[in-house]
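User: These chains co-purify. Model them together.
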Amino acid sequence: MTATEWLPFTVCAAALIGLGLYGLVTQPLLLRRVIAFNVIGSGIFLLFGALSGSESAGTDPVPQAMIITGIVVALSATALALALVVAHAREGGRDP
Amino acid sequence: MSLPITALVLCLTLPLLGAIATVAAPRHATPLVTSVAGLMVAVTTGLTSHVAVHGPVVVALGEWAPPLGIQIMADGPAVLFLLVNALVMAAVVLFSLAPIGQPGPRSRLAQTFWPLLLLLWGALNAIFVSRDLFNLYVGLELASLAAVALVAIERKRDTLNAALRYLLFALTGSLLYLLGVVLIYAGHGTLDITLLAGELGMHPTDALAIGAMTAGLAAKTALFPFHVWLPPAHAGAPAPASAVLSALVPKASLYIALRLWLEAAPGAGDAIAVNVLGWLGALAVVHGSIMALRQERLKLVIAYSTVAQIGYLFLVFPLALGAAGAVGSGVADSAWNGTLFQALSHALAKAALFLCAGLILEAAGHDRIARLAGVAQALPVTLFAFGLAAITLMGLPPSGGFMAKYLLVTASLEGGVPGWGLIVLAGGLLAAAYLYRPMASAFRHPDQESAAPFTTVAAWRQAIPLGLAIASLALGILPAVPHELMGGMP
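Assistant: Joint model of the two components:
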């Protein structure tokens, strides 16, 4: 891929990471923070994919395997976070 | 497969298999968990003695060599952490065998506590032996998820709050680490620590990568000012869980930071960055100790003490990589060995302290320091164990903590930066102050009218923290073998 091909992806990835970090810091609601975490994760995976395609020799398959692993890890983390948020709400806890 | 390689593979697979088996057959959980714990102690002891005699054990998974494959390696520092992990975990398993013990009723113990404990055990072992930065990420995330679930295990509102806060810090930390991994892979095309050694720092994005990874790891290690999640989480969890969380989990992320800075990128850290890390460590020592002095509950004192003790571990960066490390390789070696001594002896001593606090909580029904009078008469063995563990945290001889402080102070004096050594000594004095308060209160005779009855605690359970405390002293009494295994700067 040439620079004009991969540059839009990396710019989008950086924007997603920045947006997610902003949300994580500024949003007080727990559910929104969990979503912000997922936005950052998506940005990082996009960055990984975009950078792995930037070589002239073609696409490197190793990052794709890592992205899939990373998505699985992020999914389980999100599941635990949501379970905790639900349990917290059941116990009468409010968003800080 | 040869025997040491089998042992190394068992270190990773046995706890995970045990976790699945415990979930599948909760009726047989007790024999399952105890046999897994016993086997793991045997396997790690064997592996440690093999590495001590014959040197590191290296396995390329599936015979795929790096950069394509993943390598796991049990070198000296790795086996020391594996062994301490096994000792603490086995002690916690034994401790939680008692039917009236925390946490909660027996069925929940089998269904949630033990599987999570074994899962955490496997994840920590994976971190200690892994040589691949992405593999380390998976281990780190697995350890965080198990640790957060352990905090929330009692489902009380306060602990759920603490667990959520912990989870947000841990997840943000992992993502920052992952961002660094992505940038390193894009720059170098490999994530193997051995292949990266000497290469890291050459690429323009490496500074950003290492910065993001270090910030993420610092948040997970609870370095000041990212420590706010630690005291409520560690003090709120049930005592056996707190023992593991405080003793081992922060060490895992620190271990990755050490591997990253000292092994993969020894030349990459510039003077400002390593001094910032050192200063944050020093602030953690002072802030954590002062906060520990001001707490009213025993478990909170011990939790804030963890914040302070973690601070020492970050002094290795200015001592080994800054101007002091340039004086001679001896300085960097002392700093490295001292840091490992501190990490290992703190793990053993802190696990002992939390188990002692758990026993006191069981016997007295509370852990308010002001109302501990008479505990020393009711639980003499527990208080003895508490005292022995306190010796390590203060850094008095003969203990692993003394070896750590001695080596760190030596490094700072020989390196011409005595300020860091002063922090270490001041931290020891502050530790003496905050550990004296609960001890003094426990040794007071109770007033006749206000004397609260104590529930009796079985002697064998009191012996468990005593064993851990003695192990932390043994590191200082017999330091030669562990010192040999640490082997100075990698």
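The first helix of chain A runs from residue 3 to 26.
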